[in-house]
Amino acid sequence: MSIEIIYVFAVLFLVVLFFAFEIFPVDKIAFFIIVSLLLFGVVSPEEAISGFSNSATITVLCLMIIAIALEQNGIINLLANGLKKLKTLPILLMIPVFMFISGSISAFISTTAVVIVFIKILTELSVKYNIPRSKLLLPISFAGILGGSCTLMGTSTNLIVNSVATKFGAERFTFFEFSMYGLIFLAIGIVFITLTSFLLPWDTSNNLNQEYELDQYLTSIEFEPSSELIDKKIMDTFLYNDLGITLLKLTRNGISNKSPGKYITLQKGDKLLLSCNMDSLVKIKETEGILINNYAVSGIDDNEDESNEFDSQRNAIVELLMLPGAPFLKRSITELKGKMIHGGLPLAIKRRKNIQNVTDKLLNINVEKIKLKVGDRLLVEMPKDRLTDLSTVENMAVLQEHTSYASVSKYKKMLTFCILIAVIGLAASGVLSILASSLTGCFLLLMFNCIELSKVYQNINWEIIFLLAGMIPLGIAMNNSGADVWVSSHLLELISGKQPTIIIGLIFLFTMLLSGIISNNATAIIMTPIAISLASASNLPLKPFILAVLFSANFSFFTPLGYQTNTLVYGLGIYKFKHFLIIGGMLSIILWITASFLLGNMIPES
């Protein structure tokens, strides 16, 4: 064993240690790899920074941008409209249906983005219909991972394995080349999780509102004579069917009903006290014949169009935090009308305590009469070009500018969706490589103003980009030093004379276990060269071994640390480690055995 091989193994050992115990953040680990390999001369300066320009890194970056555009323009959020209709399904039927939807979409869109949207939807369903999130979130995460393994663009791991394998002389995968295997694994996952769902906890608590921007605001609405909702039963209006809206009180002719039933017919002059989220508030605002807090929010300036439509290009909805000494303290929404900075319109408030804890008190008064206190938040609509004026107001903090999917124009939604279809179509048909098609898609999104660069910079997962930039040189160093050949030759001695199915099974098992300790992307970069060297030394086809790494790097279901979406749902506090270890562990074993035989059958008998 040469000194270069020993040094590369030492760096690899430290990297695994850093990942396993989270000693340093990902970006620091990436720079440690680059600098340590460069200073020792295992890689050239060009090779050390090649990860930043690698086709896989750029493709992953482009697909992230496309996913951000889909979310910013409300494409992903359109899922909610269809999923709401599934609320009446029994839980045993809901699990496979939701898993199928999650897996199907994740084959073409970022799995993480899909799971985050499902978290929002399921939280709203849980709040309104008492549907247990705990029976669905883990299955949806697993299905998203399995679905992402169905296409080349499904996960960043697929792209990395394809890129690394190509550099080592393997033939490039086509878009749907391994889709048949991915669909088999997805079907197995759906059936298995449905049958073992009784092992999942039953939880319907509503403690996720602070996470994922599901905060509820209080507002009051009144119906004008022109409203189309008059003479309709509450159950027949969007006020009842919208998951983001909860009816707290109805006031008619001075008499309050603190639990308005769904069969009540709305009348002219009725007032409703609502708890709603941002998207629902914008939807209410755009509905003709509805007054918010006793006044019509039809425009910010008197000379503007009288349409209720929220113009996201000109106006913004901002959340203001009241600090001690703020000028709006001890004032109600009614008192603030016309007194906001440059004509800003107060829309709703959120008390400093959790809304469920103060509902009883709020039901006894009108929301427009609630006096603002320190810690309260006020939702205000203002022109974007006047937002800077808020910085001149003392003792008031601008927390965030809200983006509502409801405010995105249909033109941008349609254009963004068409660009996504074009990217998938060009890559799938082979007209363009996935890198070229995704770059073209990003260019079109920027040219047609379908995405804001500021949103891109804020929402890109830079940890993944730096991880790829650091790990790719490590893969090159393993090849330059001969470490991959050394490992494969010693493995070959151990498995000499064994059936190809057994060899592939061992590669699959080791990769899957390693992926549960460090990230799936890092595992893929380390194991792909070793798998190729082992296949070459055994005079066997390369692709079954490459696919073994590709699938197994994604399939570490036995730990919440193996994949980002698993970490995401684990962090919500609903699941314990044992749920991943037992359910995910059994699924990993089933997939390991199945994949070993399927991929082993790809090798012709000698």
From TrEMBL:
- Could you tell me one molecular function GO term of this UniProt entry? monoatomic cation transmembrane transporter activity
GO biological process terms on file: potassium ion transport
What PROSITE patterns does this protein map onto? RCK_C
**Domain annotation RCK C-terminal: ranges:** 206-290, 305-396
| One Gene Ontology cellular component annotation held by this UniProt entry | plasma membrane
Cite the entry's keywords alphabetically: Membrane, Repeat, Transmembrane, Transmembrane helix, Transport
* Spans through the membrane: 6-24, 29-45, 51-70, 91-119, 139-161, 181-202, 419-448, 499-519, 540-559, 579-600
**Record-linked SUPFAM superfamilies:** TrkA C-terminal domain-like
Keyword Iron-sulfur applies: no
- InterPro entries, alphabetized: Cit_transptr-like_dom, DASS-Related_Transporters, RCK_C, RCK_C_sf
Topology with respect to the bilayer: Multi-pass membrane protein
- State where the protein is found: Membrane
* Record PANTHER family: BASIC AMINO ACID ANTIPORTER YFCC-RELATED
Give the protein name, as stated in the record.
Di-/tricarboxylate transporter
- Organism (species): Galbibacter orientalis DSM 19592
